[in-house]
Write a structure and sequence with these properties.
Blueprint (H helix, E strand, L loop, with lengths): L22 H33 L5 H26 L9 H20 L3 H29 L2 H26 L6 H22 L15 H6 L9 H22 L1 H9 L3 H33 L3 H19 L4 H29 L3 H31 L10 H18 L8
Helix pairs in contact: 1-3, 1-4, 1-5, 1-6, 2-4, 2-13, 3-4, 3-6, 4-13, 5-10, 5-12, 8-12, 8-13, 8-14, 9-10, 10-12, 11-12, 11-14
Length: about 425
């Protein structure tokens, strides 16, 4: 999709004189993103699977439809939310009002999912969760585009990447003893999310935005801002495509993890929760190696692409091992390798995104929203495609998880290779 823009820009329209942020900003940003991911990725890791199994036993494909619907809603609304955030003028600034509102919607969503009497209501709850917590997360990330200088992007991306990957693990561990209580299963991670985001909102200063130039926009203007000319910002476009492929593979890998472990090891979902929780400690270490190592080293050597490619290669290798695994040892080994790759790719790619993000001074929210398409489209489409893949070459009630994980491996590898086309960043 293109507009009438014609001039190719190799370098993003970046603010070059941003001062370094202090430790307060960095650590409360890390904690806030940790809280968001604990609040609404923990349900994706285990809670939604348990509720789907309660409401529709033997129909795990329903999980794909629910998660896909949530991602589709976010895909359609996130650029609008970003454009709205860019143009918000309040004493609290542009980003904090959306964090507060998103938290409120997010908490309501957790209660809805916990008490849902039907699959439809459960799906509605997940849509609200994606919208509410997704709005909080996107405005935290837009804040990094507003304030981080290039020299700190890898470090902060590494720290937040580590936090967001380990948060669901801690969420599973926290809820391991309450899998029989749906309300606690959803609300315990949610309370952690509310506390940590509130700390950021109240303790990290954001300038009053009422004095900024007011840029009014019509509905037609909003819709046009959903589009941009990829030729105008080619490096941003290549980063978008690499991220799209990566998250398509990652979504295929993670959406059915609980059911995959259950089928491959011939155990119940409740027992799977125990295995995932036990794997959590080692997973934390693996993600730490990838996210922190890649983030800090990419700043140190001023190189991003080689680390993003390495993340894709490592993650693909782990998925391949999981696809071919026949016992719990191989599954755990593959999962840990995948964790290293996820940490490395996602952290450094986030820093790379900030390097190539266009029009940061005026339209950071818009382009972060467009970047969100690279995540939300895979999250909406992959779960809808996965059930069909699971039925290829099998009969009866069996599912072809091996093929699903092989396809996922190919996609994340392709995501790493595409990044090499970026020119303005090494």
């Amino acid at each position: 999709m293109t507009t009438n823009e014609t001039t190719t820009v190799d370098e993003p329209d970046a603010v070059t004189d941003l001062p370094k942020v202090n430790a307060r900003y960095i650590w409360f940003m890390v904690l806030a993103q940790f809280g968001v991911f604990m609040a609404f990725i923990t349900p994706l890791a285990i809670s939604l699977s348990i509720r789907v199994n309660e409401l529709a036993p033997g129909h795990e494909e329903t999980l794909g439809y629910i998660t896909g619907a949530g991602a589709l809603f976010v895909m359609l609304t996130s650029p609008f939310m970003g454009i709205w955030s860019d143009r918000t003028r309040t004493a609290l600034g542009r980003r904090r009002p959306f964090m507060i509102g998103g938290m409120a919607v997010g908490v309501v969503s957790l209660v809805v999912m916990a008490l849902a009497p039907t699959l439809f209501v459960l799906g509605l709850g997940w849509v609200l969760a994606q919208w509410g917590w997704g709005t909080v997360l996107s405005n935290l990330q837009i804040s990094t585009a507003d304030r981080l200088p290039e020299a700190q992007r890898g470090k902060v991306a590494g720290l937040t990447g580590f936090a967001t990957q380990v948060a669901p693990v801690f969420g599973v561990i926290l809820t391991f003893g309450v899998t029989g209580n749906a309300l606690l299963l959803f609300l315990i991670p949610g309370i952690v999310g509310v506390v940590l985001v509130t700390l950021f909102v109240t303790l990290v200063h954001e300038d009053d935005s009422r004095g900024m130039v007011k840029d009014t926009i019509t509905l037609g203007g909003v819709l046009r801002k959903y589009l941009y000319n990829p030729k105008l910002y080619p490096d941003f476009s290549w980063n978008w495509l690499g991220r799209f492929l990566f998250y398509f593979g990652l979504t295929l890998n993670t959406t059915f993890t609980a059911f995959f472990f259950s089928a491959r090891l011939d155990i119940s979902l409740a027992e799977v929760a125990g295995i995932i929780a036990a794997l959590g400690g080692a997973g934390v270490l693996a993600v730490t190696v990838g996210a922190l190592g890649g983030g800090f080293l990419s700043d140190r050597f001023r190189r991003r692409k080689v680390f993003v490619l390495a993340g894709g290669v490592i993650m693909a290798a782990g998925m391949l091992l999981m696809a071919l695994s026949a016992d719990v040892t191989a599954l755990i080994a593959g999962s840990l390798i995948v964790s290293v790759g996820i940490g490395l790719f996602s952290a450094v790619d986030q820093a790379l995104l900030l390097d190539v993000l266009p029009e940061k001074a005026t339209d950071a929210g818009r382009f972060m929203g467009i970047t969100g398409f690279a995540t939300s489209i895979p999250q909406s489409v992959a779960p809808l495609v996965a059930p069909a893949v699971l039925l290829i070459g099998v009969t009866g009630g069996e599912k072809n998880y091996s093929l699903l994980y092989l396809i996922a491996a190919a996609l994340v590898l392709a995501g790493g290779l595409v990044i090499l086309r970026i020119r303005s960043v090494r």
